[in-house]
Specification:
mainly beta; Tachylectin-2, Chain A; four-stranded antiparallel β-sheet; DUF4185 domain-containing protein; DUF4185
Length: about 350
């Protein structure tokens, strides 16, 4: 993959009060706009200081999705400032637990409604619970559906989530933990009951066979972070931050229940050290995320990728990369020149936890 452009930062999103931010999971709203949801956001370029909010929503022009997303607006009454999308206060007590931040994991459009899944955290990596919010006005405002799951649901594997709507009326969801040290499980829910926890069912192995309705079984072992499942042309693509190998991979699936060990899988972006970065050759320091941009094709796949220099707190931004879906036998990017734990994978999460203590500094 090659870098298309920076999506956030000075001269790009500071007109919305967005200096430093990350994530940027994106869907098309019912009215045709791009809705991109970002994580911990600050007014200055970096981490910390004034204007801490999360999540934050920016609207984009869908016609620019494959040339470099152009932002057209944000949530909130002030045209020059993107307000926090959800109603809560950072570092407050909620349900008897201290909540430092709420982090988005994925957004989906179903008919005229949009749904946002978030993790409610005390620090990063410590998830108290997850919940689903709904918007009936194209992502302008969000309200709780009442759907909520404890952080230890399914052994802590139902925290970081991605979902996609199938032609059969079900929403399929892969998930993992937020610690970058767990594999993936799969669940599904009828699209019209996405806000009903009782309607979710697992894809699990029992009595010698895989079947729906069983407790979910790990469908792919590993150490994963951010995930993005999308239907692109006639394929299901699962983009994942492979923290254990310090890279972003794309799995090309016949369907969500495909055998993930046998699926075509290729690396599109490789983590590296800061002195060896080369964004034109797919080498990115302290990378994570990897969200498929609506309008992508198999030959022109676009991703929103995050980058955080945890030593200097800048860059802390989202970027857009483009390339093609790896085909069997394709040549991967060069290998990282240092172990994953040195600049990415679980190492970046430890640094993130330390920096999180200084968010309000």
């Amino acid at each position: 993959m090659r870098k298309v452009k920076d999506l956030t930062g000075p001269g790009i999103t500071d007109c919305f009060g967005v200096g430093g931010t990350d994530l940027g999971v994106t869907a098309i709203a019912p009215d045709g706009r791009l809705v991109s949801v970002f994580g911990d956001t600050f007014e200055r370029a970096g981490v910390g200081g004034p204007g801490w909010r999360s999540p934050v929503v920016l609207f984009g022009d869908a016609a620019t999705a494959r040339t470099g997303i152009r932002w057209t607006g944000s949530i909130g009454p002030r045209s020059h400032y993107a307000d926090q999308a959800l109603d809560y206060e950072h570092d407050s007590i909620v349900r008897g637990r201290r909540v430092s931040t709420t982090i988005p994991t994925d957004v989906i459009t179903i008919g005229r409604e949009m749904y946002l899944h978030v993790m409610v955290c005390e620090g990063l990596g410590n998830v108290h619970w997850t919940e689903v919010h709904r918007s009936t006005d194209n992502g302008e405002t969000w309200h709780r559906t009442g759907a909520s799951w404890p952080g230890d649901q399914h052994g802590g594997l139902f925290q970081m989530l991605t979902w996609e709507l199938g032609e059969d009326g079900y929403v399929y969801a892969f998930s993992t933990g937020f610690q970058r040290d767990k594999g993936l499980i799969l669940q599904r829910v009828p699209a019209d009951r996405i806000g009903d926890p009782r309607a979710w069912e697992g894809w699990g192995f029992r009595d010698g066979a895989w079947a729906w309705g069983n407790p979910p079984t790990v469908a792919l072992t590993g150490a994963f972070g951010e995930l993005c499942l999308r239907r692109v042309e006639d394929r299901w693509l699962l983009c994942c931050f492979d923290a254990g190998n310090y890279r972003i991979d794309v799995l090309d699936l016949d369907g969500p229940t495909a055998n993930l060990y046998e699926a075509s899988r290729g690396t599109v972006l490789q983590g590296t050290s800061w002195q060896h970065e080369d964004h034109d050759r797919g080498r990115v320091a302290q990378l994570y995320g990897g969200y498929i941009v609506p309008g992508s094709t198999l030959d022109d796949l676009h991703l929103v990728v995050s980058q955080w220099n945890t030593e200097h707190n800048w860059p802390y931004r989202a970027m857009q990369f483009a390339g093609s879906v790896p085909r069997p036998g394709s040549t991967p990017p060069p290998e990282a020149d240092e172990p994953a734990d040195a600049r990415g994978g679980s190492g970046i999460l430890r640094a993130v936890r330390e920096v999180a203590r200084r968010f309000t500094g």
